[in-house]
Amino acid sequence: MSIPTSNFIHDIIEADLASGKYTEVVTRFPPEPNGYLHIGHAKAICLDFGTALKYGGRCHLRFDDTNPTAEDTEYVEAIENDVRWLGFDWGENLFWASDYFGRMVECAVELIKIGKAYVCDLSVDAFKEYRGVPNIPGKEPAGRSRSIEENLDLFERMKKGEFADGTYVLRAKIDMASPNLHMRDPAIYRIKHASHHNTGDTWCIYPMYDFAHCLEDSIEGVTHSMCTLEFEVHRPLYDWILETLNLYQPHQYEFARLNLTYTIMSKRKLLELVKENLVNGWDDPRMPTICGMRRRGCTPEAIRAFCTEIGVTKTESLTDVALLEHHVRNDLNEIAPRRMAVLDPLKVVITSYPEGETEEFELPNHPNKPEAGTRTVPFTREIFIEREDFMEEPSKKFFRLAPGTEVRLRGAYLVTCTRVIKDADGNITELHCTHDPESKGGNAPDGRKVKGTIHWVSARHGIKAEVRLYDRLFTSENPAAEERDFKDYLNPDSLKVITGIIEPGLAAAKAGDKFQFERVGYFCADLDTAESKPVFNRTVGLKDSWNK
RNA sequence: UGCCCGAUGGUGUAAUGGUAGCACAGCAGACUCUGAAUCUGCUUGUCUAGGUUCAAAUCCUAGUCGGGCAACCA
């Protein structure tokens, strides 16, 4: 596991540790189980767990399940799975906000008893009127002057289920004139006759985020509570609740959320794509979700390296997806065995090669790692090469196959193109080449050099495979910031499904196996793969300084 | 509009009053049985205006620009 680099929060933690304010660091990752985790969450996960790791503390995985109508166990399992896959371990420290519902009610009662909370019967719209607007102080709701006894009674009856949803709400009594709207008597408990995935029908009142979250942190002894920037204005309320209840007070720190070019990071919008079948589910390899990226072939190591690289600041930014791709290539380059696959096949007949003969060539699995071993690849008179590796009238800088030129078939022979065969429409259908039998293995004994080396697959042995070519999901760098609806900027070419010819050994690939298709890109066997019908995803292409 | 937050090359960041550095991207070259990887070199930056100081990206003031907040969501 890479060591997290430093950031402004770590500076604070180090000062806290040095001053003796804390002797141990406790953090938490607190997702609401209402959707799938995405790369933005990965940033938070790396920060929360990485910080605990760095300072020898602990990080809790806590499900912030305070809103039963939005949540589902489907998400709980997916979240646990994704965090684990990213390489983090919460050990015994799995917690649920719902486990604290009893204590939270006690805290609410305490607030009522000290005159710091009251039951309010204003409708949503009516309270909006009272709250007012930022530059104008609000008005005090009548419920504010209700007696403690009456508040206690009303809250008890709320809890017992005597009232319908929306009829009453418990509010913190703070300051209806505060310049911070969150301090204008925020709701802390609402009535919701809904079944909870954890607590069933035990409760019909549920705490609001602002009330629940600080209590959860406090109860668990969190020292540094990290969240994204939009919660900055909530911090005074976080502090107020714990201070007022005279409870242990963690400190909340805010950092900028991750934005990536050519994608979106909002759970709501991602859900929209899934619901409207604009992608093939949460784990569609084009999605920025952890499960989508996993299916696409990204590694947790690459994602962690990326998160380390982008750092943690309070500056809002839009990170170039090229940076992520760099880390994906960087890791895959190390670990992915090399294979040959032709995505756009053009048949080549080696006319000088004996018909019916098969040779087995031994090719390295990794050019820079002899320890990665070798595999054998069959060679025959008829092969497929990549259509774009041939040019009838080559440009000056083209050094692949062209009429009369010699190239190396990777690991096999030097061949020279002798004939171009076309159909009636003038499309090239086949090439004839002659080979130099002396160049077996790829090098000529006379030492002559060829500039081009191309990949190939034996026509007789090659296996057809479905290959899914993914491109960016959106055509806009920042679809969420565009004028029109983000869905108007979906890239119609974000998925192209083609049939390629792969070297025979590749058919046995298991879902998730990763390879570099030499000269083409990094690919992984998809969940849909089967030996009888292999399916590969393009994770990311190779850098290509020729094509551009 | 009120409050809060932010601003360093094209992008993401570092520099915590003392040489503006790193990575990505881009460009050029070397090497190469992957036009990959690797290696070398190069281009590009402190929002503006004042002030404090021997010295300011850093501290102060004002402005500009960008973002957040006004769910019985989190």
Give the gist of this structure.
This protein is an alpha/beta fold. The chain has helices at 8-19, 39-54, 73-85, 101-113, 124-131, 148-160, 209-219, 235-244, 267-275, 290-296, 300-310, 321-335, and strands spanning 26-29, 58-63, 94-96, 117-120, 169-172, 187-191, 205-207, 224-228, 251-255, 338-339, 341-342, 345-350, 359-364, 374-379, 382-386, 406-409, 414-422, 428-435, 453-454, 456-458, 463-470, 495-502, 514-517, 521-525, 535-541. 25% of the residues lie in helices and 23% in strands.
Write up what this structure looks like.
This protein is an alpha/beta fold. It is 25% helix and 23% strand. The chain contains twelve helices and 25 strands. The protein has helices at 8-19, 39-54, 73-85, 101-113, 124-131, 148-160, 209-219, 235-244, 267-275, 290-296, 300-310, 321-335, and strands at residues 26-29, 58-63, 94-96, 117-120, 169-172, 187-191, 205-207, 224-228, 251-255, 338-339, 341-342, 345-350, 359-364, 374-379, 382-386, 406-409, 414-422, 428-435, 453-454, 456-458, 463-470, 495-502, 514-517, 521-525, 535-541. It has a seven-stranded mixed beta sheet with strand order 10-23-24-25-21-22-11, covered by helices on one side. Helix 3 (73-85) links the parallel strand 2 (58-63) and strand 3. Helix 2 (39-54) crosses helix 11, helix 7 (209-219) packs across helix 8 (235-244) and helix 11 crosses helix 12 (321-335). The longest helix has 16 residues, at 39-54. The two termini are 36 Å apart. 39% of the residues are buried. The mean pLDDT is 96. The structure holds one RNA strand of 74 nucleotides.
